[in-house]
């Protein structure tokens, strides 16, 4: 029986990761809850006047999306490392840089996509003007994919570390910044009535770059980490 | 299982040296593993058996000197089981990350039945006992096509009947032109020749 | 080309060559630093708007410029280490990270000190300053990642990957912050004083920049030598070297 | 050889936890870095004018402290559960509710105390007026201890769950809210020149209550979790 | 080790019944373990040995029926090692969470030396090999004062010499008035009487 081709294996891995996610519905709901809670905390911490809130809303929503991505990125390869699956993945005949895309894809589907889908609700809670909601969803869709890819690099580099702690946040938060800036700028532009296209185009260009390069970095990182 | 030629080299190691934590574990280790051979790596606790297996299969890439050449697909079972606790044994095999062939449901069921997990195909793996957990991995041996098996203490947590069956399986794999390199602290009782590689004293044919 | 490459791969050769370079570079660096310092602090006119506080420029700007350049040195070494599997490139990269981090910190710190009298605040979220802060985090990330690995060979490779990823990101970060800032705020604070800078202030500044480059090189080489000794402590040439030192 | 007394055992556990923390200096530095990063993210997401920043500062600093506490709480018992130490702790003859205090104490020392100690730096970066800094430090000192105790309850309840994941944040975020409210209110009062004492007194009272009750809840939670 | 009286009951189980995942593992199991006795629990993989031990030591409190009475301090070693990877073996023993006595440095050193870890006292535990890892736990047996030892597959990953030493240790503990309840898939070869509790077939004196 010949081993499955790279694409077929990728799909198998994606199904596996999604199945695992479905087995832990709480894990999926969790970024959403985190999102909800932080959005609820902000008015408490900042003082709740509606006008001020609306001004913050783009930034707050984007920062929350970023944090919740950061928190979940650490786990992308962790459990597979701990139970030995990662060793087996590295020994698989299929190219590793394609396999890791399946992990990132599953991560994005269960965090970024969901966040983007529910974000309009929170946007309304924070009094974000309606015309900005499309920009919010679009920028979150592209931006969270980018975040997942960047986070995957950090996760791959740190997964084998006994003494690493949450080193990952130090490694990837700086890399997250451009995404945050363009993402929240897009929403802010929409609030101000300016065109959103350029921001989304830049995010899209960054996403293309990341899709091309991040898998290579992740594959290299995993091969190194397993030997830490 | 396709028939394979005995005597063809499947893995060659040349002058492997490894130092761990200031202790030299082995030095100038050279050997060739051919189809049809069963090797047992021996050595006390901490002798370097696991480290050697990881070098042979290619997981360790830094910190040792020497070359390893691999001529055939291999299957490595380490101390860890690579099972997802939340998946059932059936799913664990069907979606296995090792990138082997796509197995049909009957194939998986019969393999699980052969390792004594009939009736446990669809429970979450974290409810399995220690031995049952390891047995799921042994089912991979029944399914796999790989010529060379690298097994790190495959008898751990397996009961007596299970050990006997596993030994029979190893012998039949070797007889069919496969090759096995394994570690164990138990003496093997198999129908084929066993070659020993003792990390304390060196090679012994 | 290849023989040289091979030599670079040889620790004793690298150790010796680094020592030879240091022998003349170290005095030159010190001389340049002292000259530039004295020139800048004592022999340049005071500025009419900022008075004497502007003199911190002679540390601030060189530190900032070299800190940025240092990152590229580090990332380049990382690329060499990954592509040609050259272990000595790992050593260079590992040695560059703390030096770069220190320079970045100096730039940030002097900038903050300078900001208080000139802008009335320690900190401003400007493109250049923010990307400098991020640069510091990138450097710290490399240092921390290296320390976290037990297997130092693997650590070198991991840091190489990280610094390459960071290199792709630095221009993006800079551009993004720049754009973001200019979008939200009119240009209230501008650094582009170069055009207006008087030659009498410029020449010592250029000297100081050169001196900082030399300082970076010295620190890099010193660090590399220490790292080489540590890595190769069990080899013959280090043993011989150490015993010679003891005898002397 | 008689087993050590409860207090002596508590001290031994505290030393153990601190030693473990020191072995992962990154883990300790991490909440601080997280703090630094989030404080850096806010201006990026919200826009950098100093005046607006100063207005957010109390809330932002407190939310960040809360988040970084939230992120680390999950790990208080996790690694001990995974390597079997927790089983051994439950079998120890010493009273469990005292032992868990050692875990919480170590957690607070390595997160809350440090956060409070470095918070003035970040307060300055966000242009918080100087007169509010004492209030900030004091409120963080008391508040983070409270957060650690509350977080410990959540951690104890969820540590054994195979499918629980980050359920903890759902369980404990609501309990965090009063702490956040009084904490940031204290700082805001100091900014406005009002007395800070009452807020700190309330936080202190909540802390006393939590010290008395949380250990019992944690002990019960652990006994249940180990049997999940 | 204080001398203890043989024949005194240290643990009594009364009509234990356990059902796991719809399968009845044991039923109406009643026995008394006395000082001076060595019990081996037998059974195939998944028979319920681990589950029974966890009930006996008190970790499992729900999901079974019957009573367990404990009359003496006990020490339980499970499948997991309870070692912190970042601490050294010395620190792991000195700061052990099981709340036993405070051991001096020499005590710990001599215990570690006796389990073959001389020279490994101060390396991080995660660099130990599988067998060395388990041996750190065996050092606890040398240090502990507990009368009753509950050991779940203590021979896992231990090499032949180590197994022999451990068996001698068990025998001497029993001879000194202690009691041992253990599971293992290997036959014991000890100098004292072994009582068997077979979960497949029931009690056998
Ligand atoms: C923490 C605060 C600061 C940081 C992080 C910072 C960072 C930097 C950096 C990275 C550069 C060099 C950029 C390049 O290579 O082109 C630079 C240059 C410069 N900085 Fe700062 N700076 C800070 C504060 C200040 C302040 C307060 C002043 C004076 C009002 C100032 C004046 C200058 C000048 C005049 C230059 C050189 C001219 C130029 O290259 O444009 N900086 N700074
Ligand atoms: N990451 C590491 N750093 C330093 N030393 C290590 C590391 N990993 C293993 N070692 C050492 O290498 C030696 C060999 O370990 P290895 O796991 O290969 O032994 P083993 O023969 O498989 O033993 P066992 O029979 O106990 O499984 C041990 O002495 C161990 O302490
Ligand atoms: N949490 C659980 N939920 C449901 N069933 C469980 C659970 N834990 C264990 N079981 C089942 O209980 C049975 C006994 O498990 P146990 O671990 O006690 O076996 P064991 O005798 O120790 O086996 P081994 O020799 O493999 O270690 C197994 O069939 C297992 O599937
Ligand atoms: Mg081993
Ligand atoms: Mg068991």
Plain-language structure description:
The complex is a heteropentamer, with two copies of chain A (228 residues), two copies of chain B (205 residues) and one copy of chain C (248 residues). With 228 residues, chain A is an all-alpha fold. Helix content of chain A is 82%, strand content 0%. In chain A, α8 runs parallel beside α10. Chain A is elongated, with a radius of gyration of 18 Å. The model of chain A has no long low-confidence stretch (mean pLDDT 88). Chain B has two domains: 130 residues, Rossmann fold, CATH 3.40.50.300; 63 residues, no CATH class. Helices cover 27% and strands 28% of the residues of chain B. The longest helix of chain B has 16 residues. Chain C has 248 residues and is mostly helical. The relative contact order of chain C is 0.16. The chains are: A mainly alpha (228), B alpha/beta (205), C mainly alpha (248). Chains A and D meet through α2, α3 and α9 of A and α2, α3 and α9 of D. The complex binds protoporphyrin IX containing FE (HEM), adenosine-5'-triphosphate (2 copies) and magnesium ion (2 copies).
Number of strands of chain B: 9
The largest β sheet of chain B comes out as: 6 strands, mixed
Helix content of chain A: over 70%
Structural class of chain B: alpha/beta
- The CATH superfamily label of the largest domain in chain B reads P-loop containing nucleotide triphosphate hydrolases
Global morphology of chain A = elongated
Ligands bound to this protein structure = protoporphyrin IX containing FE, adenosine-5'-triphosphate, magnesium ion
Mean of pLDDT of chain A: 88
Structurally, how many domains make up the residues of chain A?
A: 1
Extended strand count of chain A? 0
Average pLDDT for all residues of chain B:
90
Using only CA atoms, what is the Rg of chain A?
Answer: 18 Å
What is the overall shape of chain B?
globular
Q: Count of DSSP helices of chain B?
A: 5
Number of domains of chain B: 2
List its traits.
heteropentamer, B: 205 residues, alpha/beta, Rossmann fold, 2 domains, 6-stranded mixed beta sheet, 3-stranded antiparallel beta sheet, 5 helices, 27% helix, C: 248 residues, mainly alpha, binds protoporphyrin IX containing FE, binds adenosine-5'-triphosphate, binds magnesium ion
Give me a quick take on this structure.
Chain A has helices at 6-23, 25-46, 50-73, 78-82, 85-91, 96-110, 112-125, 133-158, 167-192, 197-225. Chain A is an all-alpha fold. The radius of gyration of chain A is 18 Å and the shape is elongated.
């Amino acid at each position: 029986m010949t081993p499955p081709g790279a694409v077929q294996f990728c799909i198998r891995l994606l199904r596996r990761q999604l199945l695992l996610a479905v087995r832990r519905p709480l894990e999926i709901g969790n970024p959403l809850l985190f999102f909800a809670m932080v959005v609820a905390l902000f008015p408490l911490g900042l003082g709740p006047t509606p006008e001020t809130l609306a001004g913050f809303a783009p930034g707050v929503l984007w920062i929350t999306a970023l944090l919740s991505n950061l928190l979940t990125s650490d786990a992308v390869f962790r459990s597979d490392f701990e139970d030995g699956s990662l060793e087996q993945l590295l020994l698989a005949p299929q190219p590793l840089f394609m396999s890791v895309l399946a992990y990132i894809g599953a991560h994005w589907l269960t965090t970024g996509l969901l966040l983007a889908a529910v974000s309009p609700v929170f946007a309304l809670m924070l009094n974000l003007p309606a015309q900005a909601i499309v920009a919010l969803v679009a920028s979150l869709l592209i931006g969270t994919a980018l975040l997942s890819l960047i986070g995957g690099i950090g996760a791959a580099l740190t997964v084998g570390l006994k003494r690493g702690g949450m080193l990952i946040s130090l490694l990837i938060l700086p890399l997250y910044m451009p995404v945050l800036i363009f993402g929240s700028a897009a929403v802010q532009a929409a609030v101000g009535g300016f065109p959103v296209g350029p921001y989304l185009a830049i995010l899209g260009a960054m996403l293309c770059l990341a899709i091309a390069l991040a898998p290579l970095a992740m594959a290299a990182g995993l091969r190194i980490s397993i030997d830490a | 299982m396709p028939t394979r030629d005995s005597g063809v080299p499947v893995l060659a190691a040349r002058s492997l040296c490894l130092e761990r934590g200031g202790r030299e574990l082995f030095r100038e280790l050279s050997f060739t593993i051919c189809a049809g051979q069963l090797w047992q790596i021996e050595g006390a606790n901490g002798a370097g058996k696991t480290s050697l297996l990881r070098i042979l299969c290619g997981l360790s890439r830094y910190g040792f000197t020497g070359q390893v050449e691999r001529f055939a697909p291999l299957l490595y079972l380490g101390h860890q089981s690579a099972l997802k606790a939340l998946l059932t044994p059936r799913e664990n095999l069907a979606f296995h990350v090792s990138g082997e062939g796509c197995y049909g449901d009957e194939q998986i069921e019969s393999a699980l039945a052969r390792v004594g997990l009939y009736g446990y195909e669809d429970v979450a793996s974290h409810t399995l006992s220690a031995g049952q957990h390891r047995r799921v991995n042994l089912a991979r041996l029944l399914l796999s096509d790989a010529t060379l098996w690298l097994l790190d203490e495959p008898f751990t947590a397996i009961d007596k009947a299970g050990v006997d069956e596993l030994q029979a399986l190893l012998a039949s794999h070797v007889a069919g032109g496969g090759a096995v390199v394994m570690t164990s602290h138990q003496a093997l009782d198999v129908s084929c020749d066993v070659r020993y590689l003792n990390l304390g004293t060196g090679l012994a044919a | 080309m290849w023989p040289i490459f091979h030599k670079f791969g040889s620790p004793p050769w690298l150790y010796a060559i680094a020592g030879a370079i240091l022998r003349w570079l170290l005095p030159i660096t010190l001389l340049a630093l002292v000259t530039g310092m004295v020139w800048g602090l004592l022999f340049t006119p005071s500025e009419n708007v900022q008075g004497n506080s502007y003199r911190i420029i002679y540390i601030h700007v060189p530190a900032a410029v070299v800190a940025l350049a240092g990152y590229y040195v580090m990332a380049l070494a990382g690329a060499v280490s990954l592509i040609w599997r050259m272990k000595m490139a790992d050593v260079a990269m590992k040695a560059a990270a703390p030096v770069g981090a220190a320079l970045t910190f100096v730039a940030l710190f002097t900038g903050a000190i300078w900001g208080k009298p000139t802008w009335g605040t320690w900190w401003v979220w400007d493109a250049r300053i923010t990307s400098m802060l991020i640069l510091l985090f990138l450097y710290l990330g490399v240092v921390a990642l290296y320390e976290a690995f037990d297997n130092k060979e693997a650590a070198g490779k991991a840091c190489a990957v990280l610094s390459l990823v960071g290199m792709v990101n630095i221009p993006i970060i800079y551009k993004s912050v720049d754009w973001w800032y200019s979008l939200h705020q009119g240009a209230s604070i501008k650094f582009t004083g170069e055009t207006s800078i008087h030659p009498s202030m410029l020449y010592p500044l250029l000297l100081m920049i050169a001196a900082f480059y030399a300082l970076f090189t010295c620190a890099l080489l010193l660090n590399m030598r220490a790292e080489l000794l540590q890595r190769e402590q069990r080899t013959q040439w280090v043993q011989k070297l150490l015993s010679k030192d003891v005898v002397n």
